[in-house]
Design a protein that fits this description.
The chain is mostly helical. The chain is 50% helix and 11% strand.
Length: 206
């Protein structure tokens, strides 16, 4: 199975002024494309593998042949993480529904959640991601280095922010905190709600 770079479902400039058009073009067309291409190259070494989707690879990394495991972890992770990231971006979507209720229940308030998520994203050393996930049926804020995915830990992603420098450096330079603050203006809470409802239907990850 050969993986392809998914097309964005919105224009490159649709997240302005919070995420700029130039960053979106480079991030999607160059960085995400590179992960996609390198994932396919790695898989060419083992044509016997029957792969249904890239998430399956990340869920079962220990079963991936050792000679391509690191490549799959890095590039498969980059491919899947970015696919997920693009889907949760949209301007002017207010949080509501079950996810709002669960966030308030778990963290005390939305503002407290925002504070904890922001601290996780800003505090992550080097490159990586901050996530809101379902872990054993409960909401959890976590981080992963590089292109690691919480999927590999058996967790269900609901929301994420890419804090690799290529995700923000053209506009924000070294001001990661400003980028993270801006990110809260482009969260597609409808998609996050959908992710959460689906996690409930799956029984969390118990």
């Amino acid at each position: 199975m050969k993986f392809e770079l998914p097309k964005l479902e919105y224009a490159y400039d649709s997240l302005e002024p919070f995420i700029d058009e130039a960053t979106m073009k480079i991030h999607h067309d160059k960085h995400h494309q590179a992960y996609t291409d390198k994932l396919n190259v790695a898989l060419e070494k083992h044509p016997e593998l029957k792969i249904r989707d890239a998430e399956e690879l990340l869920k079962n990394l220990k079963q991936v042949p050792e000679d391509i495991r690191t490549a799959i972890r890095n590039n498969g992770g980059g491919y899947v993480n970015h696919n997920f990231f693009w889907e949760i971006l949209k301007k002017d979507v207010k949080i509501k529904g079950k996810i709002k209720q669960e966030i308030e229940k778990r963290f005390g308030s939305f503002e407290k959640f925002k504070e904890e998520f922001t601290n996780a994203a800003i505090g992550l050393f080097g490159s990586g991601w901050a996530w809101l996930v379902v872990n054993n049926g409960k909401l959890e804020i976590t981080t992963t280095p590089n292109q690691d995915s919480p999927i590999s830990e058996g967790k269900i992603p609901l929301l994420t922010i890419d804090v690799w420098e290529h995700a923000y450096y053209l506009k924000y330079q070294n001001r990661r905190a400003d980028y993270v603050a801006a990110f809260f203006n482009v969260i597609n809470w409808e998609k996050v709600e959908d992710n959460f409802v689906k996690s409930i239907m799956k029984g969390g990850n118990k």
